[in-house]
Known about the structure:
- The protein is α/β, with parallel strands linked by helices and 300 residues long.
- Helix content is 45%, strand content 11%.
- The chain has twelve helices and six strands.
- It has helices at 10-26, 30-37, 41-48, 56-65, 70-84, 104-108, 128-135, 143-162, 174-177, 183-198, 251-267, 292-299; strands at 112-117, 166-172, 202-207, 222-226, 235-239, 245-248.
- A hairpin with an 8-residue loop joins strand 4 (222-226) and strand 5 (235-239).
Amino acid sequence: MSRPRSGPTVEHRVLAARLRLLREVAGKSLADAAAELGKHTMTVRRIEAAETALDIGQIETLLRLYGVPPHEIDATLTQVAAASRAGWWHRHRAAMPPGQHRWIGIESSASFIRLWHPSLVPDVLRTPRYAAALHALCPGTSTASTDEAVAFLLARQRRLRERGVRVWALLGEAALHAVVGDAEVMAEQRQALCEAARRAGCTVQVMPLAAPPHPLSETPPLRLLRIPAPEIDDHAVWQSPGGNEEVTDAPDTVGALRQRLDAACASAPPPATPLPTLDGPEELQGLDGPEGLEGKAAQR
C-alpha cells in the first residue's frame, strides 16, 4: 500500500528538479520521456514537480535516456532512498490544513521566511493559547484536533529556532487589537511577540492602523520562503479570496510579491519602533539595532 502523501521533502524536490534539468539539457521533450517510460506525459510532469512517489526504475530509465554516465546514475539512485523518506511533519498530517502539504517541506528547509498578515499575528509567532483560540473558531473542531494543531505549530516553531531560520514579519496593528481568546491570552501573545522580536534573526514590524494605504493593503496573508538550494526557487504562499492557499515558485509572481512586501516594510515604522498597544507604547528597543530595513536587505 502506498504511503499517504503529506508533501515532498526538499531532497525529493531537488531530485525532481535535476531530472527536469537533465531532460532539458539532453534535448528531450516530455513526450520523449513519457514514451520511454510507457506512460502519459502527465506522469513525467508530475515526476519533475515532485508530485508523485519516487520510482527507482523510472528514474534509472530516464537517466539512461538523458545520456547520464553510469557512475552518475549510480550516485543519483543512491539518493532516491533518502529523498523518498517522509518528512518530519508526516505524523502531523491530520493537523495540516488543506494545501499546507504543498509548502511545509519548503518551510522546513527554509533559511529565510518573510510574512505579512493584515489582521492576526503570523502563525510562527503565535503562542499556544492564541493558536488554540483561533483554531477553536473553525467549525467542527474538537479539543483533540485543537491540541494536535497546536502541537504541530509548536513543532514547526521549535524547528525554525533550532535551525536558526531568519524570520521577518510585518503585521497590521489590527492584530494587536483584535481580542483572540481573552485579554489574558492577548497580553501573553503581545509579550511573546516582544520576546521574539528581541531574538537574533527575528524582525517584527507593525503597520499602524492610521498608516496610508500601502502595496499590501489589499493583499491577504502572504508567506515568502527561501531555501539554500540552487535547484529550488523562492516560493510564495498566500490565501485566495475563497480561503484556499495558493503556492507558486514562478519567478515573476514571487518577484512581484517580494517587491510589494519590500515597499510595505519600507513604509512601516522601523523594527525598533515601540509596539503599539491599547495601553500605550511598549518599548522594543534593541530589536534589530539601528541598521533598519536597508541594512537588513543588504544582508539578503
